[in-house]
Amino acid sequence: MKFKEFLRREKYVILNGQPSWFRLVKWIVILSVALFLLLWKGWVAVGLFFLPLSLLGISLHFFLRWKSKSWTQSWGPYKKIPLGEK
User: Fold this and answer.
1) Interval 6-35: pLDDT, tens
2) How does pLDDT run across 45-58, given as a tens digit for each residue?
């Protein structure tokens, strides 16, 4: 797979992997938790809470990418989506 094709596929998955309503709810929850932690304990608490969650999210992304063979097969919670192939 060429690098340009790899980037195109990853971009397609990023833009089409989650429905819009899910992204909206996700960001409302993330920002609400961040605001609560900021007002309660400050920036350090926000960082200590979100840093491990970010690492977990990145790890889960690469795990699902590996198990779904670069987004070409369904596996676990991931269901194959059309990747806009030519």
Assistant:
1) 888 888 888 888 889 999 999 999 999 999
2) 999 999 999 999 99
Q: Around Cβ 16, how many Cβ atoms within 10 Å?
A: 12
CB neighbour list of residue 73: distance below 8 Å, 6 or more residues apart: 80
The two structure tokens encoding residue 57 = 């999210």
Any alpha helices (H) in the chain, and if so which ranges? 3-16, 20-41, 43-67
Long-range CB contacts for residues 7-16, cutoff 8 Å, separation at least 24? 8/84, 9/70, 9/71, 9/83, 12/83, 12/84, 13/71, 13/81, 13/83, 16/81
Q: What is d(CA 62, CA 54) in angstroms, rounded to the nearest whole number?
A: 13
**Three-class SS state of 40:** helix
